[in-house]
Design goal:
By secondary structure, the chain is mainly β. It has one domain. It is 11% helix and 39% strand. The protein is built from one helix and three strands. The N and C termini lie close together (10 Å). It comes from Allacma fusca. Pfam families: ABC_tran. Keywords: Membrane, Transmembrane, Transmembrane helix, Transport.
Length: 70
């Protein structure tokens, strides 16, 4: 998984609220990765963006690639 410059905004409240800001990273095959942070830090939002689970509720700018594919 490779991410580059992910910005995510919640579409529901007006005006848009940025919930992820310039997140990037690479996870290589066979490696274990942990995502840690305080409550409300955006861990679940990041996982949902990576899994394309909230396409209807957030606007995502940036690129998420798995095995080189978007």
């Amino acid at each position: 998984v490779k991410t580059s410059g992910i910005f995510s905004r919640d579409k529901r409240p007006k005006p848009f609220k940025r919930v992820l800001n310039n997140v990037s990273g690479i996870v290589y095959p066979g490696n274990l990765m942990a995502i840690m942070g305080a409550s409300g830090a955006g861990k679940t939002t990041l996982m949902n963006v990576l899994a394309h689970k909230n396409e209807g509720s957030v606007a995502v700018d940036g690129e998420v690639r798995v095995n080189g594919m978007p």
